[in-house]
Amino acid sequence: MIVRRGSALCLREFRVSSSFKSSGRVSYELRGDIAVMTVSNAPVNALSLAIRQDLTACIKQFEEDDAAKAAVIVGEGKVFIAGADIREFKRPATEPHLPDVIDQIESCSKPVIAAIHGVALGGGLEVALGCHFRVGVPGAKVGLPEVHLGIIPGAGGTQRLPRLAGFEKALEMIPSGAPIGVEAAKTAGILDEVSEEADAVAAGLAFARSVIDNGTALRRSSEIAVPAVDPKVFADAKAAVTRRARGQRSPVACVEAIEIASQTSFADGMAKEREMFMELKTSAQHRALAHAFFSDRALSKLPEIEGIAARQLKSIGVIGGGTMGAGIATGALMNGLSVTLIERDDDALGRAKATIAKNTGGAVKKGKLSAEQEQRIFEEALVLSTDYASLSDVDLVVEAVFEDIEVKKQVFEKLDEVCKDGAVLATNTSYLDVNAIAAVTKRPQDVIGLHFFSPAHIMKLLEVVVADKTAPDVIATGFQLGKIMRKVAVRAGVCDGFIGNRILATYRAAADAIVVDASSPFEVDEVMLEFGFPMGPYAVSDLAGLDIGWATRKRKAPTRDPHERYFTFADRMCEQGWFGQKTGKGYYVYEEGARKGVPNPAVLEIVTEERKEKQINAKKLEKTQILARYMAAMVNEAAKVVEEGIALRPLDVDMTLIYGYGFPRWRGGPMQYADEVGLETILNNIKENAKEDAYFWQPAKLLEQLVATGRTFADLNAAQGNNSATKAHESA
Ligand code: CAA
Ligand code: NAI
User: Fold this and answer.
1) pLDDT in the model for residue 556
2) Which of 113, 263, 471, 589 is the most exposed place for a label (fewest CB within 10 A)?
């Protein structure tokens, strides 16, 4: 049935029944002699089963429709098509498969045009590549981001893109997953035209008209000969991505799939691509990366701020212009906020300004900030002052003075005096009690922790630390600040170290025990590098400065539990003035100005001395045992953090460790990793270690409950469609 535009039955919609619930539809509408097929599956027109079924039906309809001389495929809403429906990947693939739908489009005897607006990503771009022509509207982007989900394009992307754009472009776009704009896509040969029309339907109709009128021959990308290529480019590309991928399989697989296009026929290439895609789709790496994708989007979905508006955020104050204060000020200024920075004296202000200038200068060099923007920052947006009264009109203050509760309390008393009603008062403390800080003010409801990571203008993580009396709109404002500063904000509760530093303290303690009982800092670092961390824990300590941990240990010494094992090798290193990179010596020795060091052999002597004193007979641990013990400590503490409600859900822990501590994203974070390994295996490891050190290795109750009931951390995440941590614990 053909339906003319304007008639009462304007649209013919193909609704299909499917074996599982899947929304979405594709409509078929004849506009004169051009059929417009509109993919409609809010919010991003993902190619779920119903859409694939509808597309098949629409294409068949088009072939049989004598009144239709060309067809245009468009997407409804803000994008063309954002790719396959990732949620369906957990289930067995159901026909019609996307490659078959795309084959059907390409095999059409009449021209099919993709008219792209917003984004065409993954399977969405693959649909477009299967069309005979592609037109984009200004501002649109195209890309194949599958690599970030641990897979490769699975519907011809690796075979069609090199035919249209060449191997160099394919090797640039597919293993990186980075989308490109329409102009670049046109230059590369991916698009036939960048329309002047802002509206994709209008752009597609105009292009279709010219194809019909000019009798332009159909161009099937599968039939284009692959360009000649030197096989060395694949070897080079593989070497480069392997180095960067740190164990992630998909970037390498992307290169391999593109290489196949240079070696075999289109049909064979498609078969190989599909085989690789199906294999990766069931891999632990895909599960981990899909978990990270959805977790990213779940972080700010919190019942306590649902429907709550953030407070106004135009100007902020920063107290202290040291390492953190200057970094926070830089990040805020670079993202359009006005900043008033308070220091103790003019010299300190001068140093803070110089650090900010160094940071913005670096950003200008990297093209992240224009010279004009930098000028505006120093002429208009940044105010430097030693007078707290200058903060009388700011919307939010972040305190970043010394990590000393008495100093912080004094600062908050002053803030309480000078700040306007409704200003948010935040502390960047790493470990101190935000409730105690809030208690010195007359407005604890306005006080919150905003824990940035160093360097604060670069690191992605922001822990939003919610104290007992923090008001919901203050929490919403914390998340809003994160959004403005392009951070990944994670909600945390108050405890020593919040989510990240608390878990870090535990796995670092486990690492020290591994060193003294069995191994060396260098071997532990090597194991963690092989696991996928960018740096091992001891190289990280060298970078951060060993004096920081030393000061903390001294501070905590009076309250240390006598049952806790205490290791002295790090203190002895500090006593010698070895503070890591900044002194040229720590666990590693650094050549003048070098950021990578070589193992410091004297460390082993110090460790050996400690073993002798404590009469420890070091026994060799295999690398797998080192990893298992290190991860068991991390997961156990993480489970306690969830159990106590410090993290709302396991996914909050996972994202904290990924964005703040270098945990490999392709392993999904410690909780996702634990699910993959098996919670019982982790618990058994904890119990085994407890035989040697029962104080340290106390199993988390949550972990025991999950094992007893055969559940996983993923079950807890899923149980919190309502995001209620408490409910999940109760049911665990
Ligand atoms: N499948 C299922 N759901 C998806 C999805 C997809 N491909 N892409 C986005 N969504 C969901 C998100 O989870 C989110 O859901 P909630 O509202 O429930 O949280 C919603 O759509 C909106 O997404 P965003 O919050 O990310 O919206 P945005 O406007 O910030 O970004 C976007 C839109 C650029 C399209 C972004 O969502 C995105 O990059 N999506 C993923 C694209 C992708 O990876 N495509 C490849 C898929 S794999 C594939 O296609 C394989 C193949 O070869 C066949
Ligand atoms: P820092 O020592 O580099 O800077 C502190 C600054 O505060 C100094 O410049 C000092 O002059 C100033 N200051 C002290 N008292 C002041 C007062 N009353 N009024 C105004 N300015 C005052 O310290 P850093 O490293 O920047 O740490 C600051 C806070 O951030 C601490 O709470 C720390 O725990 C936290 N933090 C530090 C991280 C790091 O990696 N350095 C990471 C995350 C949080």
Assistant:
1) 87
2) 263
- Residue 333: the pLDDT is 98
pLDDT in tens, 59-98: 999 999 999 999 999 999 999 999 999 999 988 889 999 9
Distance 82 CA to ligand 1 centre (A): 6
Which ligand has an atom closest to residue 299 CA? Answer: 1
3-class DSSP state of 252? helix
Q: Which of 533, 567, 565 is nearest to 550 (CA)?
A: 567
pTM of the model: 0.94
DSSP-derived letter for residue 495 is: S
Whether the per-residue pLDDT at 19 is higher than 60: the answer is: no
Which of 318, 319, 324 best tests ligand 2's pocket when mutated (most atoms within 8 Å of CB)?
324
Find out whether 425 and 446 touch, Cβ atoms under 8 Å: yes
Residue 447: pLDDT above 50? yes
Distance CA 230, CA 162 (A): 14
Place of tokens 């409801």: 445
Q: Which residues line ligand 2 (CB under 6 A)?
A: 319-325, 342-344, 348, 400-403, 407, 411, 428-430, 452-454
In this structure, what token pair is assigned to residue 695? 């104080």
Q: Which of 146, 343, 523, 637 is catalytic?
A: 146
Beta pairing partners, 119:
141
pLDDT at 721: 63
Which atom of ligand 2 is nearest to 454's Cα? 40
Q: How confident is the model at residue 2 (pLDDT cuts 50, 70, 90)?
A: very low
**Ligand 2 atom nearest to 410, measured from its CA:** 18
pLDDT for the residue 17: 31
pLDDT of 14 higher than 70: no
Torsion of CA 148, 154, 158, 164, to 10 degrees: -110
714/723 Cα distance (integer angstroms): 13
| Strand ranges, E, within 401-540 | 424-427, 447-452, 461-466, 488-493
CA 21 to centroid of ligand 1, rounded, Å: 18
In ligand 1, the atom with minimum distance to the C-alpha of 144 is: 46
Q: Do the beta carbons of residue 364 and residue 392 sit within 8 Å?
A: no
Catalytic site includes residue 399: no
List, edge to edge, every strand of the sheet that includes 70-75. Answer: 12-13, 25-31, 34-40, 70-75, 112-116, 133-136, 193-194
Q: Report the alpha-carbon distance of residue 366 to residue 486 in Å, rounded.
A: 17
With vertex at residue 100, the alpha carbon angle to CA 98 and CA 105, rounded to the nearest 5 degrees, is 95
Statement: residue 3 has pLDDT above 70: no
pLDDT, tens digit (0-9, with 9 covering 90-100), for 22-41: 467 999 999 999 999 999 99
d(C-alpha 710, C-alpha 103), whole Å: 44
- Ligand nearest the Cα atom of residue 99: 1
Paired residues of 181 in beta bridges:
141
- Locate 239 and state its tokens: 């070497």
Give the residue among 349, 299, 302, 308 at the shortest CA–CA distance from 329. Answer: 349
Told to judge if 126 belongs to the known catalytic residues of this protein, a careful annotator would answer yes
Closest CA to 119 of 85, 75, 157, 88: 75
Average pLDDT of the segment spanning 136-140: 98
Cα of 403 vs centre of ligand 2, distance in Å, is 7
- Atom number of ligand 2 nearest to Cα 414: 18
